[in-house]
Amino acid sequence: MREMQVLRNNIAEIKVRMIFMSEYKETVKKQNILALRALLKEMPPFCTDYFRGIASSTLPRTQTGYCRDIYTFLQFIIMRNPLYKDYQIKDLPLKVLEEMTPADIDEYLEHLNYYVFEGTEYRNGESAKARKLSALSNMYSFFNKRQAVSNNPLTAVDRPKVHDKVIITLDQEQIFDLMDAVESPTNMTDRQKKFHNLTMARDRAILTSFLGTGMRVSELAGLDITDIDFNNQTFRVIRKGGNEAYIYFGDDIRDALCYYLGIQENQEEPNDEIKSLSPRESLLKGNDEEKALFLSLRGNRMAVRSIEVMVKKYCTMINTNKKITPHKLRSTYGTALYKETGDIYLVADVLGHKDVNTTKKHYAEMTNDNRKRAANIVTLKKNT
After folding, report:
1. What pTM was estimated for this model as a whole?
2. What is the DSSP string of 269-312?
3. CA distance linking residue 230 with residue 130, whole number of Å
4. Would you state the pLDDT for residue 366?
């Protein structure tokens, strides 16, 4: 009987977790759909037709990215083509796609290097230009397939060559400095110190989780309290594409989370007998139904952008010229794991890369270092 009750409790817990996971995914999906609709209000009708046509095969987040890139292309047409200089972007006809030539696309690529639109300067590197051409190419393919446009100038244009970027990571001393900055920040006003006292435990738990698991910022932002299993020391996360995965964490993360949640050693739940509020409870603002693990000062789930700003804040306090983002903290973990194990498949699995070639591409330089060391692994001469 006892075993059956435990089983029922486990099933009930899984159902609750699935509900929260579904709610979060639906919230993010809704936000992306609303963002896309807002963008399409400023776009021509043929763009609306295009995004409706790909809605069933493309995620809302991807559609939003495509929409922004296509908007940039339509900006270019108005800025550079005298025939359309008096048009609003939303009034452009479909025939503008038919009129484009390979030379126009080459001019567009040159334009993307640097331009000013409505008083704002814009610059694009090779990867940004390649992404914008990809969005444009997909739209041309859609209208070609539907025989609404017969022309496709991109087939005659060479794509920008995207060079592999050097992996930016923190070294061990910089990691120590970063964690010290959370404990003892510098150059803060009294008002800033007041807010820091409220968020210090949260920020330490966030940075420790990044550096100790290599999870994505979107995965961390989506964590609920019920996604933590202290017995097995795992996070349950939603990977890209909506797949569920479990990430193991070490003792440093466990300790940081326990302090943030007000959990004493050998406890699985917050201690109701402790009168003082835990750091997380101090952020709740009375919203006891909020299930998000990491909370903003408003008492709701921290947004991805808020987490990025928080990481940047602490990284400016340490002596580094590196531009540190949550993704760089993820790379720091991935680099350390690969140096320690030399197992590229393990790194790919832990980081959630679907294709190990993605991992190999990022860590190619270290792979070459391993190959060089392998050349001298066997000693052929006696030491004299």
Report:
1. 0.62
2. S--TT--SPPHHHHHSTT-TT--BSSB-TTSSBPPHHHHHHHHH
3. 43
4. 61
